[in-house]
Structures are given as structure tokens and as C-alpha cells.
Amino acid sequence: MENLSAYSMKRRFICLILTCLTGLAAQAQVTYFADMLGKGFKQATIIQPSDYEGSVTCTIIKKSTPEKSNKAVLYVHGFNDYFFQEEMAERFIKEGYNFYAVDLRKYGRSWLPSQKFNNVRDLSEYFADIDTTLSIIKSEGSDKVLLSGHSLGGLIVSLYADARNGKELFDAVLLNSPFFDMPVKSGLKKTALPLIVKRAEKHPETSIDAGLSPLYGESLHKDAHGEWSYSLGYKPHIAPPVNFGWMRAVHLGQVKVSQGLQISKPVLVLHSAKSIDEKKWSDIMFTGDAVLNVTEIALQAQNIVGQYSIQAVQGGMHDLILSKKPVREEVYSTIFNWAKRVVK
What we know:
Layout: H1 6-22, E1 33-34, E2 42-51, E3 54-63, E4 71-76, H2 86-94, E5 98-103, H3 127-139, E6 144-150, H4 152-163, E7 172-176, H5 186-190, H6 192-200, E8 207-208, H7 215-220, E9 242-243, H8 244-259, E10 261-262, E11 267-272, H9 294-301, E12 304-305, E13 308-313, H10 325-342
Parallel strand pairs: 4-5, 4-6, 6-7, 7-11, 10-12, 11-13
Antiparallel strand pairs: 1-2, 2-3, 3-5, 8-9
InterPro entries: AB_hydrolase_fold, Hydrolase_4, MAG_DAG_Lipase
GO molecular function: hydrolase activity
Pfam families: Hydrolase_4 (PF12146)
């Protein structure tokens, strides 16, 4: 895993010091600095209460519309991920949305040297990061908010929307290939997974190799077969090992989805039309979801109690907005046509 650049480390140090000095909270004015993406993106590091690993931060990234707007989108990334999708941000800005993203605790810009990447014991730990960011978005003048999540972020956002039912700081929910089911064989799901979940109660830090192929990452990154530029330190082709606590947190979140989610705001669930399982590189990697079972996504999405729509995208990759250009143009068209009806 590559080291953080000197610029990134310096920026993080300055942000942390100033955040501590000013005592930032969701209701206080946030001080932004130039983000690593440049091009007008800004970031602010927010200190959150410490947890079982010590200090905790989340990072807000934003870029505003040229003309004043009262609409915003908040994007929540997936597992082994962080916000880098500039094109997505620019498309939302073009549609009149102030763009915000949050790098969740222990991911991307928010990772601290004392932490294990991606570490979590309960997915509700992320709710504070979303609460904080939504409160800041509201305080900065956007009173209409679209809450969006990809993959694990889609699962987190779904659970968050259920937990905040009746107290929402958002107006609609967009789910891009939500992580509604563990991508393991059914036999292992019935045997090994329950044992891991049980053991996690007393031994959450026990590590386990997620067994993920590097092919999906290679299909995205410009230095391999893809067209996107991002930090392989924050989003390596092969994710770091997860621990039993992570497995338990995700499993319990998925069980909650299967039992039904009460979401009173409109929900759009998008997923690829097919899953793929390539063992070696081929261009088939550009044609389907190489991470999750799309049949399970569509099935579990039907457990949402509320106004929802589920749509399959032909030729979509796991992160639909990183698909080949004709496909992602269709995705954007679907998103914005829906958003015009529900975010007013």
C-alpha cells in the first residue's frame, strides 16, 4: 500500500490542528481547505468522538454550483473505497446540485495511522458521520438533499434512512449497487458465516482474507485496464484483510434489510443487469457486476417499505457511474429524470 504523499500528510496535520482549536461541530462554521482533487474541490476534517481504536475523524468534500442553489447531493462511498469520482460531481453540479461527499471514518482521507483501514464493529458507527455532514449541508443553505450511497455505502445509507425515519435531513435516497447480500457461496453462508459472526462477539479483531480478486480494481484504474485515476493507497486492487467484527457488522446490517426497512422518502435502487465471475482478465469485466450478486440486490431491495423503484442497467459495472461512457450516460439520465420528480 503506497504511502500518503507529503502534501496529503501536511494537509491532514493542519486540518486536525485547526479542527481541534476551533472545536468544530455540525452546527459550527466549517473551515475548508483545498482538496487533493484540486479543480475547486474543498475538504474539511471533522473530529468525531473517539472509539475502540482511539481518535476518529470523517472528511467532508464539497464543490458548489456556480449559481446559488438550495439543492445538494451527499455521496457515501463503498468498501475499499473513497470519494474520487470527479465526473459524477460535475454532473450533479451541472444539474444544479451542490455536491458533497464524505470519506467515512477509517477510509480514504479520514484514515489515521492508529487505525485499521475499513475497521467497524457496527454499521451504525457511520451514522454520526452522515448526521454531521447532513447538518453541515443544511447549515450551508441546501434545504433539499439527495442522499446517495454505493455498495457498502448503499447498505449504510439504507440502514441510516430506516433509523432516521421521521427525522430525516434528506429528501430522497439513491442506491448504486447496494451491498444487500454477502457475496459468498450459499454453503459457506450457512456454515462458516454464522461461526464467524458468533466468534466476532469476543474476538472482533481476528483478521480474515476477504478473498477478493484484483480484476475489478484493474478494470477501473487507468494504470491497468480502466480509465479512472485514483489513489491505490486508498483504494488498492486487493482490499486489506477484514476482521470478524467487520463481517459481523455487515451481516447484521444485511439481516436488518431482509427483515424490512421503513424508509418514508423516495428510493431509487440501481444495479447491473448481470453478475460476472471471471477468473482471469477479459473485456467481459466491463459488462457486469464483478463484486455482488445482482439478483440478491433486486430481491432484498423489495424489503424496503415505502416508495421505491428498482432498475437494472444493461452493461453496468459494479460502480455504475464508472461503467463505460454509453452506460454511465444512461445511468445519469435515469438518476436525474427520477430526481426531478422527487427532489423539488
